[in-house]
Amino acid sequence: MNEELLAVFVASTIRLATPLLLAAIGELLSEKAGVLNMSVEGMMLTGAFAAAAGASLSGSPVMGLVCGLVAVIPLSLLQAFLTNTLRANQIVTGLGINIFVLGATTLGYRELFGARSREVIPGFDKWNPPILGDIPVIGQTIFEQVWLVYLVIPVAIAVWYLLARTGLGVAIKAAGAAPRTVAHSGLSVTLIRYGVIMATGLLAALGGIFLSIGDIHTFTEGMTRGAGYLAIAAVIFGNWKLGQTIVACLVFGAATALQFQLPALGIDAPNALLIMMPYLLAFIAVSGLVGRQSAPRTLAQPYWK
Amino acid sequence: MSAALAVSGRILAAPAAIPVLAVLAAFAVGLLLIVATGASLGQAISAFSQGAFGSAYAISVSLNRATVYALVGIGFVIAARAGLTNVGGEGQIAMGGIMATAVAVHGGVAGLPLGLAVILPVLAASLAGGLWGGLAGVLKVRAGTNEVISTLLLSFIAIWIVYWCVQSTDLLRQPMTSAATLPESATVPASTMVPLLTGSYAAPVTVGVVIALILAVVAAVLLARSVFGFRLRFVGLNPIAAARAGIPVERMTVLALFIAGALGGLAGAIMLLGEQHSLKTGFSSGYGFDGLVVGLLARGRISGVIAGALLFGFLRSGGITMEMAAGVPTALVQIVQGLIVISIAGAAYWMDRRASR
User: Fold this and answer.
1) What is the rounded distance in angstroms from the CA atom of residue B102 to the CA atom of residue B173?
2) Which of A107, A281, A293, A294 to mutate against chain B (most B CBs within 10 Å)?
3) What Pfam families does the annotation carry (chain A) (predicted)?
4) Taking the domains of chain A in order of start, what are their residue ranges?
């Protein structure tokens, strides 16, 4: 692999990891508070579709971004209401919402775009940051990215700060580890879990928005193709720790990038193995082969007073 | 006062009322959406019923779908009795399908007498599904891994193992596929195919329907009347007390997930050897996840599994015809299906609250 190919590989790794990073950081927040939010896939798809629809109708990607974020709010509220107020099974509501969103966005797309389905949707342009962008070879390939890619950095720092340095972070983690104690200390477990699901929704939607109007400037039916489930796998592989979850997303992004690069390098590796890799790695991680797992104690359990 | 309470209690206690209402509400939304998309309501409904139960063929296809949902759902309910959530139906079906293909095509069983040509691949497939499910059980017992997470991951791994098997000629890909066709395995020999109940392709309902019904009865009796069922329930209600009482909790955990997986593997074998006859990428296309939903919605009752399996089986078949004949996208059926799942899952709040009183 020469320098240029390597730079392309790194660039596409980062690009492919971006939607996963946004969604997985959100999913991590949810799971820390005890909610296994399976609807992250549907949340991403909602963001992707609403952003595409908004950008296409208004001609402005910024309006698309706003639409994507607004559209996910009722969906997140529904998920939060079902799992926290009605204490419905988190897995079944997640799967139900995902089925619903896949249907709704497919139908909506056909109704809205129908004949114009091959049209390019206005989206965000790539941006070349000063200084970094001027570095030879890698400046043009690695650092020239849509600004949403760079958004991952402040989001990650904010979530790290929230979880590690604030009282709210302690409360979130406690809501997943010992919800009863949280309730005894006078805080509302329900409210905390509503909050993290809303945050997850917005972050997952950002991931979806990046997919449709950031990366490829179009919408295709079911375009997330399981990215939400990958985000869940990343949190598991990352052992419910922020840094490791980010590394997991980058590893998954690299595995995806390799699928496209290996044939170019003339290497004949089974494609299936690369696609399977994220799930296999996450599985190896949870099977206890690589140290102890630290899943939040009440993960996926509804909280009853 | 107490009399009034008793009366209102009796009305609310109709156990099927809430899920039935939820399903009806979801259907109503579906009808509204059909109108909203501008399709003719009458045409859509007649296409739907044509596709779901308009002909012997349509009914057969719907029943075959329902069979798969029922088997996965029964497995889910058995595991749930032990307090386990088996999210791995999709993977267990996939492993069953792979094993059934491998044994039927390369296992040298085609010439065996007495139906062994079918029975052996079906048993091997059940074993493969069982091991895939049991693996999650072993992990739970040995490493404390949450079975929701491990079975979900195992599902995705299995889906891509199918892909691998049909892509690679070293595995199950038939060498004859040209570049123009999608890669798939060789067709299974005729002697290994799960026979049709009617013997005619005009009504291709497989013997699997009967097998699923028998297994449903067996499971219902086992769960309600046997020592095994009692032990499962004890482990599910309180594993610590169960262990004190001398029940081998760990073995029961692995066994429950093994049985659930074996039923998934069986479903995969019936699908592959009964209908599809060759392994393709995505051959299980969401059956496992739908079956899981059927199991969840059944709320622990085998009768609920049967009802849910039939509902989803007919819904799916009708939806496909609705798209072809009336131009109403199947996405609409997905919306209705999603709404059914969401509303029944949410309605559990009222049902559980009543049960706990």
Assistant:
1) 10
2) A107
3) BPD_transp_2
4) 1-115+139-224
